[in-house]
Specification:
- By secondary structure, this protein is mainly beta.
- The chain has one domain.
- The protein is built from one helix and nine strands; from the N terminus they run βαββββββββ.
Length: 121
């Protein structure tokens, strides 16, 4: 897995078109401070071929999750937001511009670190 830093957020979001139109394949709580999510999405760097992207969020300090049985019903047309503020990553489903507004999201995770891995569709 590759670590994501604050400078890499815009590049990742641009490459995967803010995860718009993606599907959440899984959400797994590994431990109270570690959550893993997998997405099926299109990769701009691979001529918009479909790939699997796995995010590992560690050092989780706050989260609002949904039941795994409801993941397939989440509307991903607005994609995701990933912000870096106050030495924390703020990940949310939907378009949000501030860490405070992310708390209004259907699903959000606040963590110290994010790592990602690309795989075959």
């Amino acid at each position: 897995m590759k670590p994501l830093n604050a400078a890499g957020i815009p590049k990742l979001l641009e490459r995967f078109d803010d995860f718009k139109g993606s599907e959440i394949r899984s959400l797994e709580v590994i431990s109270p401070t570690e959550i893993q999510m997998s997405f099926a999405l299109q990769d701009k760097a691979r001529a918009y071929d479909w790939v699997t992207l796995t995010l590992l969020l560690s050092g989780v300090s706050d989260a609002k999750l949904v039941d795994a049985s409801k993941l397939e019903y989440i509307d991903m047309s607005d994609g995701v937001s990933i912000l870096y503020a106050k030495n924390l990553f703020h990940f949310a489903i939907g378009t949000y511009k501030t860490e405070a507004s992310i708390k209004d999201a259907l699903l959000y995770i606040v963590s110290e670190n994010i790592k990602y891995d690309e795989g075959a569709f």
